[in-house]
Amino acid sequence: MYVCICRQVTDNQIRETCKSGCGSFNDLRAQLGVASECGRCSKLARSIVKEFGRASVPAQPA
Predict the structure, then answer these.
(1) pLDDT digits 0-9 by tens, 8-32
(2) Which of 18, 28, 34, 37 lies at a CB distance of 3.0 to 4.6 Å from 52, suitable for a disulfide?
(3) Mapping DSSP to helix (H, G, I), strand (E, B) and coil, where does residue 36 land?
(4) What stretch of H or E contains 44?
(5) Cβ–Cβ under 8 Å, residues 17 and 32
(6) CA 36, 40, 45 angle in degrees (round to 5)?
(7) Helix, strand, or coil (residue 6)
(8) Residue 61 has pLDDT above 70, yes or no
(9) 43: which DSSP letter?
């Protein structure tokens, strides 16, 4: 699915960029250009970055 229409960036591209070490929205914006034009995609792009960050954090032992 396209997240950023202005830059033709998909959710899969965002996830792949996160897997490659991108850890923040600012890094994502610098690498892919998301939210650098109209900005309408920023909320969804941020949520994908946060979702990926939560998934990669190991669970804390009880």
Answers:
(1) 999 999 999 999 988 899 999 999 9
(2) 18
(3) coil
(4) helix 42-56
(5) yes
(6) 75
(7) coil
(8) no
(9) H
Asked whether the beta carbons of 3 and 11 are under 8 A apart, the reply is yes
Burial of 32 (0-12, 13-18, 19+ CB in 10 A): buried
Whole-angstrom distance, CA of residue 18 vs CA of residue 7? 17
CATH class belonging to 2-56: mainly alpha
In which band, very low, low, confident or very high, does the pLDDT at 46 lie, cut at 50, 70 and 90? Answer: very high
Query: Hey, where are the domains in the chain?
Result: 2-56
pTM of the model: 0.82
Residue 3 corresponds to which tokens in the numbers above? 């997240």
The two three-digit tokens of residue 12, written as one number: 């899969």
**Kindly report the CA angle at 24 between 18 and 30, in degrees rounded to 5?**
85
Tokens 């914006």 correspond to 29
Residues making up the chain, counted from first to last: 62
